[in-house]
Design a protein that fits this description.
mainly alpha, Arc Repressor Mutant, subunit A, Tetracycline Repressor, domain 2, 2 domains, 9 helices, about 70% helix
């Protein structure tokens, strides 16, 4: 039970922080405001995070909360390709509606210069677990080419998504990430199919 409570506390801090970052901007948000909005304490904040900068890596935590929700609600009747398209659409809608271009840019920047963990690449993330599960399903059902490994497909898909997000940041969000991906991702996925 203690682990569940600690996850809830960390989740409250992360959710409040990113909501404030989106509303006020990263630079204009203080730790005190995050603590107040999350209904936690300063001690709890510093238990999980060294400071505000360390919250930048926590965006992957929010993404994974979305994937956990999707894993529980996703229609099992969908094909593996439909599941991948749904995963992508839900993530990119979330980004467009709750994560500013500057925050996503800062996340990528922090992942490039960090000497510590690169949270976006962490294989134990819900994102990679769900992606692997769908990819395995795709191979077992004969949709994906047999010569491609589960790791090949999973990595290529993740690289494709990161590439789209990176380009969206470079273009300062001047197009719909979700709409662009809805056209490009099916074309990309065709390369994995028999």
């Amino acid at each position: 039970m203690k682990k569940k409570n600690s996850k809830n506390t960390k989740g409250k801090i992360v959710s409040a922080a990113w909501q404030l970052f989106y509303q006020q901007g990263y630079d204009d948000t203080t730790i005190d405001e995050i603590v107040e909005a999350s209904g936690t304490s300063k001690g709890s904040f510093y238990h999980y995070f060294e400071g505000k900068d360390s919250l930048l890596s926590s965006l992957s935590y929010l993404f994974d909360e979305k994937y956990e929700e999707l894993a529980e609600t996703m229609n099992p009747e969908l094909s593996p390709l439909e599941k991948l398209l749904l995963m992508n659409r839900e993530l990119f809608l979330m980004i467009e509606n709750t994560v500013s271009v500057s925050l996503l840019s800062q996340l990528f920047s922090s992942q490039l210069v960090t000497k510590g963990e690169r949270h976006l690449l962490e294989p134990s993330r819900t994102y990679y677990k769900l992606l692997r599960q769908i990819t395995i399903e795709g191979q077992q059902s004969g949709i994906f080419k047999e010569e491609l490994s589960i790791n090949d497909i999973t990595k290529a898909y993740a690289v494709f998504e990161r590439g789209l997000m990176y380009d969206w940041c470079l273009c300062n969000g001047n197009y719909s990430l979700c709409q662009y991906s809805s056209v490009m991702l099916p074309l990309f996925l065709k390369g994995f199919c028999k």
